[in-house]
């Protein structure tokens, strides 16, 4: 996509599910790999490459990566060839954090499932309303 055929900020926002303000913030805060292209009138034009990077940033943020670490990862990518091992290490470390978070969420989900099972046994099978039943 050339700057004249890229997506407007509104179109990029719709495509990515982010707000235009968030896209501007990503650019202003140095989270984009390169400057977003501009039309002849100065309006932002997002390329396919920009959208792929925004998707990656969104994935990293959604898995709990702090902005400063997203920026560090972006810096490694911008440096290009020769940083692949560092990028791999960086992503492996983040993956370990995500797996730990998942394990914790699964543990919490197990507790919720257990409680649901108790309610199902009491409420559905015995017709009791535990919220209104007199305490014993």
TrEMBL record:
Keyword DNA-binding appears in the UniProt entry: yes
Span of domain HTH merR-type: 6-76
InterPro entries: DNA-bd_dom_put_sf, MerR-type_HTH_dom, MerR_fam
GO MF entries: DNA binding; DNA-binding transcription factor activity
Keywords carried by this UniProt record: DNA-binding
Protein name from the UniProt record: MerR family transcriptional regulator
Organism ancestry: Bacteria, Bacillati, Actinomycetota, Actinomycetes, Propionibacteriales
